[in-house]
Amino acid sequence: MGAYLVRRLLQTIIVLIGVTLLSFVTLHLAGDPTYLYVSERATEQEIENTRRALGFDRPLPEQYLTYVGRVIQGDFGVSLRAQRPALDMVLERLPATLELTIMAMIVATAFAIPIGILSAMRRGTAFDGSMMLVAMLGQSIPSFWLGLMLIIFVGLNLRWLPISGHVPFLDPLLDGDFQRAFTNFPDAMRHLLLPAITVGVFSLSRNARLVRSAMLEVLSQDYIRTARSKGLREPKVIISHAFRNALIPVITMLGLEFGFLLSGVVVAETIFSWPGVGRLVFDAINQRNIPVVQASVIMFSFMFVSLNLFVDLLYVRLDPRIRLN
Amino acid sequence: MTTHTAQQDVLSLSNSELAPTTSSLRRARKSLIRARWPVLALIILIVMVSMALFGPEVAPKDPNRQNLRARLTAPFTANEETGDVDFLLGTDGLGRDLLSRLIYGARISVSVGFVAVFIGGIIGTLAGLVGGYTGGYVDDIIMRLADIQLAFPFILLAIMILVVLGQGVLNLILVLGIGQWVTYARIARGETIAQRGQEYVEAARSMGMGHWRIMLKEILPNILAPLIVIASFNVASVILAEAALSFLGLGVPPDVPTWGAMLAQSRDTLLAGKWWLAFYPGLAIMFTVLSLNILGDWLRDFLDPRLRGGD
Fold it and tell me: Which of A21, A29, A271 sits opposite B165 (nearest CB)?
């Protein structure tokens, strides 16, 4: 376990260095990045000043090292619009995005697992068939379209749920203001529901299919037959023998899920005017506000990489067979 | 003399599985019809692809022709004077015919999907073949690169590249293509490693066949099935990604109709209840992607039952 941990940590560090290299290269893809930082009417002198101030006149390897040095210190530059550190802007929006991502994750797993198990148990029945058809449909719907449709039909026509706005829950919780977090909770949930469904439906569908096929695979194993012939009750067989083993591919998927959910979050936040990092990225794209785009992208990647590391370690705990490789 | 026939045997052995003989085509058709859903999916796809190919001939109107008097006409509305339905699926905020824009939109959305997957598939397959066949540090470098890219949620990578490079169909295809290579590289590598030690590869090597010929002529045909299966799902997800990027304003320039861009524009009139501008483009995307997913499922069962995972 110790050697594995060290190797896995080293791997993570290489990947993180790669992430900074990749974002550095992208920045220089179109030639001199200075032009991304100045307005179109900037004079020669202004461009030259900016180039020097940002260090784009230095040799590339030196630029990269300075860049990495800054990233390690959390310095992603200053937002071109707000004239504030880009990282601060990302961090203050992070709780709203985490609320949405976690809620979407709950939507994606809380329904997927029971649907997948029931479908596997009733394989070939009408229930199984219709669930898998719906899951196939769910994997084919563009999430932002689903969001727009939910706004029109659930929000505007039926007036069941709010279609925009955000009531903070995680923010007061992190500040230790439990009273406010508690009173905000019901309203926060109402505002979260439509965006979370929008983000989560794709993963919900895929996970349901995944759980089903993992369960089917496990259910055909000899030890299940043994458990049944021992006279164990079916729920016991399903839950403590089959599901535990079917969980392994599901956990791997959940780790990768985070990345998928994030891309959904960027779009969903735009549709529902959710004040998170996704909305920030969207605005930054339209204003070509490079420091903010870079800060958000790198922050997201770091979160993604650490989460994958965590999932891998969890994986080793769950399945002793993988320990060696 | 004997070596010659041995070589022929080896060659015919490795190629026989994928050569589309009449009997395997007939088997495919039978299995397709028996599964029912894939037939419907295939029909939908053919319609979408022909819309992409023959857009100008099929579209009832010019997709960019504005008609301000007929702005925001609802679908199936009859003209008050003539009683005809001028715009079958209605018009947008500039009075442009929605149906014609949908048909033209198929061009970009569908072709971007196929071309990007083709590019990514070729790059990835070659990388995987070389990595798996050579092993050693070449393999290490390729796989580390793959890890790094996987550490980046794809949409973020795409956003960064497109913000720097700017909009355009070509940039979009490039970014979406680059985004896909990892999947193919990983699968091709794994399969190549499994094939590398097989007897037919050793036979080819002992006959003095060059490395590239062994990889492309001997190994590639034997690892193609899982790659084709992945590609069919991949086109579906690339079409979704294209729509998402266009929706974020990073796809094609605003005057080019694509399904994602049409959805983005529909947001302006959404709160005024003009549902059709959002409804139909999304439906087009959904049916295309659904068909590709259904076909992919069938193709997987047909070509490579090993990938079914217990089902």
Answer: A29
